[in-house]
Amino acid sequence: MKQIAVVMILLNISYGQFSRSQLVDIDEPHTYTPPKHYFQTSSFDEAELEDDGSKNPLDRGPYFDISASRNVTALVGNTAYLNCRVRNLGNRTVSWIRHRDLHLLTVGKATYTSDQRYQSVHNPQLDDWSLKVLYPQQRDSGVYECQISTTPPVGYSMMLSVVEPITTIIGGPDLYIDTGSTVNLTCIVRHLPEPPPLIQWTHNGEEINYDSPRGGVSVITEKGDITTSYLLIQRARNSDSGKYTCLPSTANPMTVHVHVLNGEHPAAIQGGEGLRCSVLLTFALLLLTMGLRAFPVR
Q: Is 239 in a helix, a strand, or coil?
């Protein structure tokens, strides 16, 4: 009997070890985690867009791909695009809303506003639903929201900044240069989303030829958030006087008038007409005084 009991105990131990080995081989349930830039955001909730690692990724249903920039800058008059990329949309609908007045602009591919400058553009290959704004003006700047028709709706907001480039020439509108000096015209272009591809300079309406026989004329352009173009004219002469215009390819032009002086003071040029009038008036008064002396009043 003791031998039978020992055999039974050994069998129980072996069965327990076999059971535990079977349990170890069973896969534990897990949840699929999409990339960190895929998650659902609550409508009008800016805090949800913070990537602090505490958000729960959405593993089913529609969600936004927010890897692209939320800030869009456009030039006045140039078509602007706000791009919204939605994954797993299914039978849901994408709408665009303007935050300033909570105005519904588009639903699906249809425009829901009397302002036909707003259009919806769908790219099914990329799952993009873009808001197209034709001829944007500075008043169109503000927050726009791409919204999915879930229950409750969820949205992703973007900021549109419509800017008008500013072109200035330092020292304008008139510059006075001594003969033989170097003319340095500095043109500055601000508020462009990217540097202008080209900046041209003209003199009295004609494009400047930097390889002309005159020589000593050059241009240096530094591109960046603020683009600066320097027009340098060495050994200035009287023929260099005139109207110079800076012409950025994507911004407004600006003009300056250059006066090359032959030793005279700028005030003499600015007040030339007034000086001539003053001389004539003085001469007339002198004649009048001499006449009164020649014919005294009795």
A: helix
